[in-house]
Amino acid sequence: MLLGVTLACSGPSTLASLSPGAAAAAAAAPLPRFFENAGARLAFTLDLPPGKGPFPAVVTAHGSGLITRDQLRWLSSHFTQLGFAVLRFDKRGVGESTGEYSGVGVENGDRMFGLLAGDVAAGVRFLRTRPEIDGRRIGVAGNSQAGWILPHAARELGDLRFMVLISGPVCSVGLENYYSDLAEWSDRPLEEVYKQLPLFKGPDGYDPVPVLQALRTPGLWLLGVEDRSIPVRDTIVNLKALAASGHPFEWRTYEGQGHSLSPVIWNDIGPWVSKFK
Predict the structure, then answer these.
(1) What is the reported pLDDT for 30?
(2) CB of 230 closer than 8 Å to CB of 167
């Protein structure tokens, strides 16, 4: 359940539920229907928490596939309960957003992750024009494929407050594909799958590690030990190396959980993001 008020791009905003100050600010700067990036008009919804702004905010990123903003309501609901405004938008070429949709693989990962990260960065820049939002307190969050997108967006912006990455891989697209081909649609023991990963010889495609090496944005990864979509053990090895070299990255693991994590993760996310409000 979303708390507070939702300001959608698909029609006139309803201001009656806002505090007088927020209502006056929104009336003075009515929401457009879209924000834009790289030739696409991105349809969005802005969810506000209860209370008086300007609010800290989160821009959400998508997992793989044809994802609309409605499919990100679960993420927005949790963050608004924590006191954050949330911008969620239809992925380019999906829902009411224009532009061309494309899947992402080894061959096109560098180009597509740059483009999708640019859409997230454009959402952050858009929020910084809004009177409801404190532009100095904006982070990003997402799940699965967003683990590749969000660090790229953070590098582009340079001044995000934080990243929350739910089941986000820290390995190359090629290795993730190889792992999921072995594990995702089978019941073979994960020990057996991990023993086969050294046999992977590429191609790697997009690799997020060089991007993460350039970052000083605090990041929190939430990882299910039994994940059959991303190689969590390899992700943790890379995160440990990055943290050891001084990067402000943390992670939490959940025994018995897979790629779709239970709401227990919010017991860790809530206290962590509160440091950046």
Answers:
(1) 83
(2) yes
Q: What is the pTM of this model?
A: 0.91
- Whole-number average pLDDT of the chain: 91
Task: Say if CB 137 and CB 276 are below 8 A apart.
Answer: yes
Amino acid at 15: L
Peptide bond into 50 cis (omega under 30): no
Domain that holds residue 27: 5-274
Interior angle at CA 260, CA 48 and CA 107, nearest 5: 95
Chain center to CA of 161: 13
CA–CA distance, 222 with 241 (Å, rounded to integer): 17
Cα atoms in the 13 Å half-sphere on the side-chain side of 54: 16
Residues 216-264: pLDDT tens digits?
999 999 999 999 999 999 999 999 999 999 999 999 999 999 999 999 9
Q: What is the 3-state secondary structure (H, E, C) of 54-65?
A: CEEEEEEECCCC
Backbone φ and ψ for 259, nearest 5 degrees, come out as -70, -35
Alpha-carbon span 94 to 79, nearest angstrom: 24
249's enclosing H/E stretch is: strand 249-254
52, two tokens: 């008086």
Q: Residue 175: which of 109, 245, 264 has the closest Cα?
A: 109
Which CATH number characterizes residue 171's domain?
3.40.50.1820
Q: Which residues are CB-neighbours of 39 under 8 A, at least 6 positions away?
A: 99
Q: Which amino acid is at 125?
A: R
Report the number of distinct structural domains present in the chain.
1
pLDDT confidence of residue 18 = 44
Residue from 178, 276, 166 nearest 224 by CA: 166
Longest alpha-carbon distance in the chain: 62
